[in-house]
Amino acid sequence: MKQVKTRIQNRKLQIIVAGVLLPLLAITTHAQMAVSHTPTIQPPAGNLPAAQMQTPVVNDMPVVRVNGTALTNRDLVREMFAIFPYGKQHNGFPKSMVPEIRKGALEMIIFEELLYQEGLRRKVAIPPASIDRAYAQFRKQFSSPAQFQEYLKFECKGSQQVLRQKIRRSLLIESVLKSEVQDKAVVTTADMRAYYQKNSLQFEHGESFSIQTISIMPPQNAGADVQAEARKRAEEALKQAKATKTYREFGLVAEKMSDDDWHVNLGDRKVVEAAKLPPPVVEAARKLKVGEVSDLIQLGPFYTVIRLNAHTPAGKAKFEDVKTKLRSDLQKAKVEQTRNELNRRLRKTAKVEVL
């Protein structure tokens, strides 16, 4: 359920950041769904069996009224697929997730309708040229004129004018979101500095190393002969590793000789906290300069050689080093907070009837 909630949360942000015309662009699935109300379920390969999947029924039955305007099951299912794109591959949803997905989708279509009605109330003007550009962009999503006509038939009653009305609705919603959310959810440098200072512990970090490894790993209970052979392999690996001059050269030796799981990634362990490394490895890494290769390190029956790519001592990240990510994180949080406040404000005076 946590994954579903994350998808719903991402969907809320997507509508704000990427523009609400996007739901119209997922056209292939909707057109195919409209052809048959009982499509065959294709279960996920190696995942859930068909018995655990639920196929949505697509029709034009009202599911909710917002200030008297009916939103249909078709609107709801479209939004469910937008929240849970995985379902498009199999034309259905895992049964255990359906209630949460449906709930999130219902909230989203209600919110969008409230935004649309707010735009109408404010008499927000959408220039015909903007509709023309969006219409042309939308048509490019289709692989052929026939596919476009199929979409018009099942989603727009065969009318290009209905499609233009849908596009106008999306652009109007987007305009309200921009003025009420994006333009108000601004994060300044002062905001970032205040957060950085107030939450200083969040930016403290322990010692870490960025390393590549070559590991020789004989079976745990190997006999003397196997252990001797492992030692011989380890010494040969050390010899070849010491001869390398670059990240890639060391990585190619790791690919060829290492037994650990990272050999497929040029032996790259990326950034590892010192607390998560064996003490002998930490001790050896501290003695190295960036780009240097260690001597042979024995860890019980195993042997390893490391290349140091970076060493970060324990400390606190500088504001300049974290401000880009901090701005992004604070922006997302502020957008979501502002959006929720707008939703509550619109819902306060609205009449919403779930059918």
What report would you give on this structure?
The structure is a single chain. With 355 residues, this protein is of the alpha+beta class. The chain folds into two domains: 2-188 and 331-354, Triger factor/SurA peptide-binding fold (Orthogonal Bundle); 207-313, Chitinase A, domain 3 (Roll), CATH 3.10.50.40. 55% of the residues lie in helices and 14% in strands. It contains 14 helices and eleven strands. It has helices at 2-18, 22-25, 27-35, 73-83, 86-90, 98-121, 128-139, 145-155, 160-182, 189-198, 224-242, 247-257, 279-286, 319-348; strands spanning 53-54, 62-66, 69-72, 93-94, 204-205, 208-216, 268-273, 297-299, 302-312, 315-316, 352-354. The strands form four sheets. A four-stranded antiparallel beta sheet has the order 7-6-9-8. A three-stranded antiparallel beta sheet has the order 3-2-11. Helix 1 packs across helix 14 (319-348), helix 9 packs across helix 14 (319-348) and helix 11 runs antiparallel to helix 12 (247-257). It is elongated and about 80 Å long. The model is unreliable at 15-45 (pLDDT under 50).
